[in-house]
Amino acid sequence: MIVVGGEALIDLVPVERPAGALLPRPGGGPYNTALALGRLGAEVAFCSRVSADGFGESLLAGLRAAGVDLSLVQRGPEPTTLAVPSLGPDGSAVYGFYVEGTADRLFALPPALPAGVRALALGTCSLVLEPGASAYEALLRRESRRGLLTLLDPNVRPALISDPEAYRERFLGWLPYVSVLKLSEEDAAWLGGRVGDWLAAGPSAVVLTRGAAGLTVWTSDGAEHSAAALPVAVADTIGAGDTVNAALLHRLAGAPDAGAADWPDVLAYAARAAALTCTRAGAEPPYAAELAEAGA
After folding, report:
1. 128 closest CA partner among 97, 150, 161
2. Helices 29-40 and 240-252 meet at what angle, rounded to 10?
């Protein structure tokens, strides 16, 4: 089983008609990653704290429909976090957030994960908003020490980070516990580090998503591989990076060494999955059957 930890929230996505209207859609990087893994056919559990309000119920319903195990989900009476993405001409999104007093940031460290868990993924807002951020950090350290493959996607949201330098220091402290670090070009530029330094700190592989330029991985043994992005008609890019996370985990979970994986195959699979996500409005990752039809 793969465990994905982090927030589940509602994206209020702009629509063309009526003018100025916002459409509620399920979202949050970890939520989207868990949903994508379920649709890809992986055995996956979501580990989070979700509101008991109507939005929270709809979020869990979406995960259930994808076959995601919810036994690690904590519930609370607080409201669901809201995110408002503004879309650029190329479909890219910049986010504003409503996070005060919301349920997901009150996540508490759970008991040890089940023995059959093979991988853990963390990232996005959940590693910023306290007190939950410290609980997720403790989960990362604990499960890494017992040998799980761990994937970290910082998915940086500057609007939520009050002290950028403190966050950058904290990020470096996570790296000894990370097997695969996945970043966008925007994340890498904001963090201000170098791939070689990140690899030296602990990860077996660093994967960089580069939008229309595709994906590149660098591994701790000095290898570098890339995969081209597939040309598609882009509705928006919401959830594309989260779909990459899911594709990486689906291919890598259970591997004894992420650095020695068949990275050309892994990246090509991730590129195809992300491309299909970009053809649909909001975070709508593909199903395994869709990838099979597309030849991935």
Report:
1. 161
2. 50
Query: What does the alpha-carbon distance between residue 46 and residue 71 come to, in Å, rounded to a whole number?
Result: 8
Global confidence as pTM: 0.92
- Please enumerate in sequence order all residues whose Cβ is within 8 A of that of 194, keeping only pairs 6 or more positions apart, or say none: none
Angstrom distance (rounded) from CA 57 to CA 52 = 6
Share of the chain residues as helix, strand and coil, in percent rounded to the nearest 5: 40, 25, 40
With H, G, I as helix, E, B as strand and everything else as coil, classify residue 50.
Answer: strand
Question: What are residue 87's DSSP bridge partners?
Answer: 93
- Residue recorded with tokens 């409005």: 281
pLDDT, tens digit, 9 for 90 and up, residues 40-80: 999 999 999 999 999 999 999 999 999 999 999 999 999 99
Q: How would you list the strands of the sheet with 9-14, edge to edge? A: 22-27, 9-14, 82-87, 93-98
